[in-house]
Amino acid sequence: MNAIRIAEGVYWVGAIDWNLRNFHGYETEKGSTYNAYLILDEKITLIDAVKEPFKEEMLSRISSVIDPAKIDVIVSNHAEPDHSGALPFMKSIAKNAKIYAAFGAGIKDLAAYYGDLGYIGVKAGETLSLGKRTLTFVPTPMVHWPDNMVSYMTPENILFSNDAFGQHYASDERLDTECDLPEAYIQARKYYANIVQPYGMQTGKALDALAGLKIDMICPSHGIIWTEHIPDILALYKSWVANEYDETAIIVYDTMWHSTEAMAHAIENAFLAAGLKPRLYNLHYCHNSDIVADAMTAKYIAVGSPTLNNNMMPSVASFLTYFKGLNGNKKKFIAFGSYGWGGQSPDQVSEGLKSPKCEALMPAIKLAYKPSDEQLKKIEADVLEALKNQ
User: Fold this and answer.
1) Which residues, listed in sequence order, are joined to residue 149 by a DSSP beta bridge?
2) Active site includes 258?
3) Contact 204, 150 (CB under 8 A)
4) Catalytic residue list contains 80
5) H-helix or E-strand containing 279?
6) Gyration radius of the chain over CA positions
7) pLDDT of 208-229, one tens digit each?
């Protein structure tokens, strides 16, 4: 396996994980890449290491360019094992290499995973001369771990951006000019929603810290490398950080005998009548991580569940737990559901949506047994009225 040249003296030497389908509960239907970058200069430098099972793939790519034992510097921008798993392996080969990581959290986390490999801590604005090139280190804590940092290299103006601007996206193409660009944007949005969204404030600070830099290439830790479309991905990140809404509404539900589903369609009709674009997700078929990618920018969210054993459906409880952990902005919500004799679930859904600081658009909607046409029309009218009166 050969290294791929991305700039003069700079190579991608990472690994492609075609088979990854789940990352901490996030469905990665397109697989992923574990990006690592090799810089040939007076000090031969490796930026990040891949997930441990892919260490031989990375070594093969490095070996196609240089003798790996000659690596002088390893920069660990993030200690999570999908970024650093091969670090002990590389240190055993490049025995004289110095390992640089964020002062404090970076050193602490690497030591917790791999023991003392002789780490050197770097602080904000510190630089490291590689010869013709210079690396500047910029801490980006909580994007998305406390130890995160990015590395900026001049004179090529390359930002090794760690998790920021990444995508779980396996592809033979390395650059945005070569890949399926619409798919790259879809995966970048999903990545932000599922990984970075809870830390929008910190991401905004990181964007501010990078604002004064001239950036000609963004090399993230996952997915494709940004070159010609840097303004576009930066604009998307700014809109996501700002919690900008679009004219959509998300309706999430599970159903037992189609009564809650019928209620979901009545709410859909109300959203349509209000000029919104509703999207329906039946949790029997749809994955939480796909739903939150759309929910991130939606103005409204409606969540429905039948009552089962005095509780909401487990699938709905799972979604609400996932949503609570990732919700980065406040939304107006509607809780709804059908029941036979208990009817607890709509109120439970309502309480679950209040946890991420969402605000009820109207009282929870409850219907017993099979809703009649008149009842469904009333739901539609009531929701439309609530939308008009807010």
Assistant:
1) 139
2) no
3) no
4) yes
5) strand 277-282
6) 24
7) 988 889 999 999 999 999 999 9
